[in-house]
User: Fold this.
Amino acid sequence: MDKLIITIAPNGSLPTKEMNPNVPITPDEMIADIKRCYDAGASICHIHARDANQKTCHDPEYFKAVVNGVKASTNMITQISTGGRASFDPISRCSGLQADPEMASLSVGSCNFDDHVYENSPEHMVLFATKMKEKGIKPEFECFDLSMVYWGRKLCEMGLNTGVPYFNLILGVHGALPYDPRHLQAYVDALPPGAVWNSLGIGAAQLKMAVHAILWGGHVRVGLEDNIYYTKGVLASNVQLVERVVRLARELGREVATPDEARAILGLPAVHA
Ligand code: MG
Assistant:
């Protein structure tokens, strides 16, 4: 079984310091928090941009500041978000690609997301994937529902992937596929041959999904973007969530990947700090 890739998603678009004071908001807070997670064993960081009022945005300067700061202080794989909460404008959703990250998230379908529709039309998915391909940025195919795996497969068939096909299998978003281990099994069964997958559980499902992935040969994403609690009623920090996955992996006999080991698993060129 491959070594375990741990992705940290420190801020996302929703959590504020009022919800959890450990959420990093400014670029400096992000860079420092991501460094702590790297030291604890994370090899990919998933970056969202926030403005001075903690609101989600797609400011390219924010992305550049965090990507460059992370590259200067760690050997981590940087991954920017092209998620749609900040705007439905596809051009602004791609603004983080200007920061030259190694990876970017790419949602491969539409679904309900809490109280709104999360819209990712086929036209926009192809546009995002094409822009990533042109810049040599590897997409992470974000799946909130089983049907989305098939759109990720389609983009691969269209030649719009870079490296090994990499799918982020998400359970627990209100309005999309809820947490159930049988749903995770269905996701894994639908992957194309040779694909690598990551598990992402929302809220209390984060820990359970991590354990499934450690045991089943997938990879793990944790962080305050997806879950602000360590356990019921107890707020988490990002580094605590990474440290817990590292402990679980060791107890269950799975070694944790360094960033260059993660690059080899994902088919990305090695980068040495
Ligand atoms: Mg995100």
Notes: The chain has nine helices and 14 strands. Residues 9, 12, 46, 48, 81, 83, 105, 225 surround magnesium ion (CB under 6 Å). The radius of gyration is 17 Å.
